[in-house]
Design goal:
8 strands, globular, alpha/beta
């Protein structure tokens, strides 16, 4: 494994966007959550997002989220940064979740752009400011217009970067010019929010990735982040190309939470792949292209219990 960056990163560098394991009857499986968190950290993650999009945050109760934060902190909080997904499109609700996350011992919080309401940029600024004032937890902003319906403009991001509690940006806008301006003009730690853009974003100065795919290919993503951070672009490119079909398998055919759980089940990491409505488990035809992409990556993962991880 390559040397890790000398600067201690307050949000980590390889951050897995964890799924939330459920029991067969749909309840939160806290034992499986603890086991998954421990495995991800053992395999190289130094940060975990708990109850983010991939964690099915929109169908979790507030009490379940707080308990998830606490369980993951108790399991790996001395070895990795635990980042609580607290953002909603309701500012006072986000404020409440920030306080719950702090009470549960989380190290930081991931706060998404308010979705569905389509606020003005002044509203976006006021929303993040209110959440920042609710607790002492540092904030990673999550800019994902594909889900929120609006982008955070670069001008707004530059203003948000002046807030001392806002320390990072998870960029899922796929706008290289915009992220370049943020990297050049602020001290924010920028993270790729699209798994497949880890290398180009890090080549421009991002410190890492917040990744769905990393939880099924942790070792390879750890090697990619370390190679990119060390400036070893030949090695980073090699790993990037090898991971491309894995990222496609996880991110392009069915929702990421669904595909990640299916793959974790096939790897033997989870005992089931239960999701909560409105998400549903895929049928055979929907799962077929996922397995085809994994086969392209050289994974023998066609039956339950098969254990194979991406090679660095």
């Amino acid at each position: 494994m390559a040397e890790t960056p000398s600067r201690i990163l307050p949000f980590g560098s390889l951050v897995a966007a964890m799924v939330t394991p459920f029991t067969d009857d749909g309840g939160v499986d806290f034992d499986a959550t603890a086991a998954l968190a421990a495995k991800l950290v053992d395999d190289g993650c130094d940060g975990l997002v708990v109850s983010g999009t991939t964690g099915e945050t929109s169908t979790l109760e507030d009490s379940e989220k707080e308990d998830l934060y606490r369980v993951v902190v108790e399991t790996v909080g001395d070895r990795a940064r635990v980042i609580a997904g607290t953002g909603t499109n309701h500012t006072s609700h986000s404020v409440e979740m920030a306080r719950r996350a702090e009470r549960a011992g989380a190290h930081a919080q991931l706060v998404v752009t308010p979705y569905y309401n389509k606020p003005t940029q002044s509203g976006v600024l006021a929303h993040f400011t209110a959440v920042s004032e609710a607790s002492d937890l540092p904030i990673m902003i999550y800019d994902i217009p594909g889900r929120s319906a609006i982008p955070i403009t670069t001008e707004t991001m530059l203003r948000l970067a002046e807030n001392p509690k806002i320390g990072a940006l998870k960029d899922a806008k796929a706008d290289f010019a915009a992220v370049t301006r943020v990297l050049a003009a602020t001290d924010l730690d920028v993270y790729a929010g699209d798994d497949g853009l880890t290398l180009p974003w890090m080549a421009a100065g991002a410190v890492g990735v917040v990744s769905v795919s990393a939880q099924v290919a942790t070792v390879a993503f750890r090697a990619l982040v370390d190679a990119a951070a060390a400036g070893d672009l030949d090695e980073a490119r090699r790993i990037h190309f090898g991971l491309d079909p894995v990222v496609r398998a996880v991110m392009t055919h069915i929702p990421g939470a669904v595909s990640a759980k299916q793959i974790l089940r096939l790897q033997g990491v989870l005992t089931n792949a239960v999701v909560r409505l409105p998400l549903v488990e895929p049928d055979g035809a929907e799962l077929e292209p996922v397995l085809a992409d994994l086969a392209e990556a050289g994974w023998d993962i066609g039956s339950p219990g098969t254990r194979r991880v991406a090679r660095a």
